[in-house]
Amino acid sequence: MMNLAEIKALIDDNRVDEAIEQLNAIIEKRPNDDALYFVRGNAFWKLGDRKHALDDYATATELNPDSPAAIAYKHALEIMDFFNKDMYNP
After folding, report:
1. Which element (helix H / strand E) includes 31?
2. What pTM was estimated for this model as a whole?
3. CA 41 vs CA 1, 38, 48, 88: distances in Å
4. How does pLDDT run along the chain (90 residues), one tens digit per residue?
5. CA 20 to CA 3: how far, in whole Å?
6. Contact 8/24 with Cβ under 8 angstroms?
């Protein structure tokens, strides 16, 4: 099983699916580790899977309110809420 630094390296190398598989295996053994959910949320975000990213950020924040996932969650919502309404309303 890989450590968190190795998993982050997989994500940086665009081997995101492999990183998520590794994270899933570790989360099964350590379901209360907020850092794992935060990193998996980042991986899902990189894949464009916004729902799962937000779910993981929320879980990490519930486990640890001081987690960086709290900021990531807030920023993710701001990004998703931002769009140019004039482009969609001719």
Report:
1. none
2. 0.88
3. 19, 5, 10, 29
4. 899 999 999 999 999 999 999 999 999 999 999 999 999 999 999 999 999 999 999 999 999 999 999 999 999 998 888 766 666 655
5. 13
6. no
